[in-house]
Amino acid sequence: MTADQPRLRMRLRFGAFLLFVGCVFQAVADADRPPVAAIASAHPLATQAGMEILANGGNAFDAAVAVSAALAVVEPYSSGLGGGGFWLLHRARDGFEVMVDGREKAPLAAGRDLYLDVDGEVVPGLSVDGALAAGIPGEPAALDHIARHYGRLPLAHSLQPAIRLAREGFVVDAHYLKLAQFRQAALQNDPEAADIFLKDDAVPNAGYRIVQSDLADTLAAIARFGNAGFYRGPIARKLVDGVRADGGIWTLEDLAQYRVVEREPVQGEFQGLRITSAAPPSSGGVALAAMLNMLANFELHELDAATRTHVVIESMRRAYRDRSVFLGDPDFVAVPVERLISPGHAGRLAQSIQLDRATPSATLSGRDISTGGRDTTHFSILDGAGNRVAATLSINYPFGACVVPPGTGVLLNDEMDDFSAKPGVPNVYGLVGAEANAIEPGKRPLSSMSPTFVESEEGVAILGTPGGSRIITMVLLGILDQAAGNKPDSWVSLPRFHHQYLPDVVQHEADAFDADMVKSLIARGHTLKRLNAEYGNMQAIYWDRKTGQVYAASDPRGVGDARIGLFKRQ
Ligand code: GLY
């Protein structure tokens, strides 16, 4: 959670390792190097794992390995070795930026009809619960790749905090209990998963400690053998045996063939801010750039609040329509990224926005959309050299497929549900997909995960969030809030609203709109859907280059932890 901290003003003397839990640190400004490091993640033990690695001389990339692996242990409902993600990296010494794509891949035996019955109808639940829902994991390969190519410490060192957490166990919190309750029935279907994540087949009580010895052994195998410790040898065999025993279709070849891909991030501009975000197979960077390009056609600060909100909603609608039609795995379909993020394309879309009325989605040509999952996790890291990481990781639905192949401790993802099982048929979120995102062997499912950097002469922001198809609009609202001059504690706690083209409704948190705003949006023709629950779990950092202040904040909706650490110069 974001903690209230006094502003600290001090001249730094490096050599010490100090930790500040909270949101603001100020030192003498140096535009090239932040005075301190910062980590914001969705779990205090993961933030602590990253800080430990920084204290041991690791850089932001080593810390990212440690935080990812720790989250795999203590946030098993969100991400893990059985899942994947996107790690956006910025290397300070030469400004090199890359997205490490560790997204899951469809098994080689998968085809477009995988989830259809003999009549060609989608079988409910098949792409969500059980081993057939699982794509080939990418996280272990990504951690090995990041450590080898960007880290300063051996992979084995950066994995130590996670191995310790798995062996010694962690105490469940209220968030865990809520999500275990939500997925209890599916967890009960798999004896191994029930044994690890439930107690006597029921949701444990608060204070219960979860020990994951098999997961510790799997992490230790990766620490010792790198990629080969997971994708080949005894662990690979146990994974394949467990998957096939549960009706899945993985083979040893699927695992042996898995590779991460380094992709050039998508970039955009907005009011002097340079936005760097996720490339396809995420839809995040493209949709963000498109929305910001559309909004650049309006003097947002001159509009009254209701008109401004209406224009933002209309930009969301149009960007998500493009997402539904054009986006998929770029290794399989031609994604016209340059056109979609061009100011010309956005200008034409912006022209169709009427200030006094909503555009019904049905009048925009296109196909329905697909979406990402409902859980997932994000963390942001800045080290004292100015290296940064924004990473969004997932096993899709809470607790993924709710299957653990015996003897591995690896909870399988159900990321296959991010494909469109059949054009026009809704997935688990009531949403439907298009041709570009159809299942093919070895293809990566379309994602909404949007790890993002926002940079100007003034400062650098690192942000992202879980939240399925709403991820992109949450990041958009965060960027607009930054452009308005606000800081991470505001971005992470903003009330949120979202439009995704179809269904043609504005979803919003209870406190997002006041009565006047509601009246004004309805008068323009919007259908509002007030959500019963809050959504998102944003983790954000901002380094103000002019003042030397570093801010870190964790979304008050979650149980995360944002910390600032003062380390020996890296
Ligand atoms: N499964 C969440 C996403 O990739 O969008």
Question: Largest sheet, order of strands side by side?
Answer: 1-20-3-11-12-4-5-8
How confident overall, as mean pLDDT? Answer: 92
Q: Based on CA inertia axes, which overall geometry fits?
A: globular
Number of domains: 2
Percentage of residues in strands: 15-25%
Distance between the amino and carboxyl termini: 27 Å
Uncertain segments: 1-16, 367-374
Q: Helix proportion of residues, in percent?
A: 25-40%
Radius of gyration: 22 Å
User: Which class best fits the helix and strand makeup?
Assistant: alpha+beta
Name every ligand kind in the structure: glycine
Biggest beta sheet attributes: 8 strands, antiparallel
Our count of helices gives: 19
The total strand number stands at 20
Walk me through this protein's architecture:
The protein has 570 residues and is of the alpha+beta class. It folds into two domains: 278 residues, no CATH class; 219 residues, Gamma-glutamyltranspeptidase, large (L) subunit, C-terminal domain (Serum Albumin, Chain A, Domain 1, Orthogonal Bundle), CATH 1.10.246. Helices cover 32% and strands 16% of the residues. The strands form four sheets. Strands 1-20-3-11-12-4-5-8 form an eight-stranded antiparallel beta sheet, covered by helices on one side. Strands 2-19-18-14-13-10-9 form a seven-stranded antiparallel beta sheet. A hairpin with a 5-residue loop joins strand 11 and strand 12. Helix 13 packs antiparallel against helix 14. The longest helix is centred in the middle third of the chain and has 22 residues. The radius of gyration is 22 Å and the shape is globular. The two termini are 27 Å apart. The N terminus is likely disordered. Glycine (GLY) binds next to loops. The site of glycine has 11 residues, from loops.
